[in-house]
Design brief:
The protein is 30% helix and 19% strand. With 195 residues, the chain is of the alpha/beta class. A 5-stranded parallel beta sheet has the order 1-8-7-2-4. It has a two-stranded antiparallel ribbon with strand order 3-9. A two-stranded antiparallel sheet has the order 5-6.
Length: 195
């Protein structure tokens, strides 16, 4: 390897760390905060995954129904739901089925990490719809001694607009609104199947 190649590699490694986690933890709403305070935007997550590839794990933690009907970023490694629907229980306030923690979430994540040669110190990016569930999942992984867990604070769909013509619609930020690559066509190998 020559001197120019060495400089390029060093600069690439430095720039990847600068691209990730530029969100000031003091600006993160309390429901999206995590103990590790590792927060990332969709663009930062995209750049990090492109630069580091298989060295990091990018997991969409939304339910299988959300992924099926709303789409999935094309560069995620897998969908492993943090919550699953309990079709025997109804939430009157929200007008939908109750969501309960997926007891298999940590096991499925560990199995995928082992398959990819990653460990609890490897970088993990978690993404949900708007950033709240990914924070909860990051909190759980922190308790399980995972050391480098980022929460994508804007999520896949982003946050709701509070006023104007788009009030109540998820058009404020997020993966889709950043025009990052995603698809309705799902890769079976990335989907979650209960065992």
């Amino acid at each position: 390897m020559n001197f120019t190649s060495s400089i390029f590699i060093a600069l690439s490694l430095c720039s990847s760390s600068l691209l990730a986690g530029t969100i000031n933890p003091e600006n993160v709403p309390s429901k999206k905060q995590t103990p590790q305070q590792l927060y990332i935007t969709p663009q930062e997550a995209y750049n990090m995954k492109l630069q580091q590839g298989e060295k990091i794990l990018f997991i969409d933690i939304r339910t299988r129904a959300e992924v099926e009907f709303v789409g999935l970023p094309t560069i995620t490694d897998a969908n492993i739901p943090y919550l699953v629907n309990d079709f025997e229980d109804w939430d009157e306030k929200k007008g939908r089925f109750v969501k309960v923690p997926n007891s298999n979430f940590p096991l499925a994540l560990k199995a995928l990490m082992k398959q990819k040669g990653l460990t609890e110190t490897s970088t993990i990016i978690l993404m949900c719809r708007s950033g709240s569930r990914s924070a909860k999942a990051a909190n759980l992984l922190d308790q399980l001694n995972f050391k480098n867990v980022y929460s994508l604070v804007e999520g896949f769909e982003g946050e709701k607009v509070k006023s104007g013509n788009n009030e109540g619609k998820r058009r404020l930020n997020g993966w889709k609104n950043a025009n990052l690559p995603w698809s309705y066509t799902l890769d079976r190998n990335k989907m979650y199947f209960e065992e």
